[in-house]
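<backbone_tokenisation>
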Amino acid sequence: MKSFQEAVTARRTIYKLGRNIPVLQSQIMAAVERMVKDTPSAFNMQSARVVVTMLDHHENVWDITKSALKRIVPANKFAATEAKIDGFSAAYGTILFFESSNMIRAMQEQFPEYKDNFPTWAMQANGMLQFAVWTALEDLGLGVNLQHYNPLIDEDIRKIFDLDDSWDLVAQMVFGEKLEDPPAPPKVPTGTRVKTFREIY
């Protein structure tokens, strides 16, 4: 296994994904459950919710997405959209990330002085969870990309997976066998993004 920093550095957005994955479903579930349990949140809110879909259930996610997009994308431009969605569907699975509006509302009622902050804090924690899961999947040798077709597909997703109405979809993380090795993306020099104030010893 890579060190944490090595896994973060190795993490890439990979769009060409297949189904011949190098790990068991149980290993994927164990990694996701551990990250859900251990990723921090403000006031220990724990408002993130996750649904892991694989194979046929994963395909259902992208069938829903394709149908939703077909209703709004002009017919003469839909071929490119369909090809993109079919690429996601060809992967092994999709992890759906949600926020519980009920939990956020409960925290707002419990701590009214911070009421306006809880939605922001919830999204920050969800972002940390997405990053943690992505890094864990990379460490298992899987390729990953992150999509955002919410809120277009929220209602149908809740219906097909029998989810509570308070579960608000945030992101869709596609994973599978790596079928490409993309180059490292360009990075802005850290010296322009990080400032340090310290004593020199």
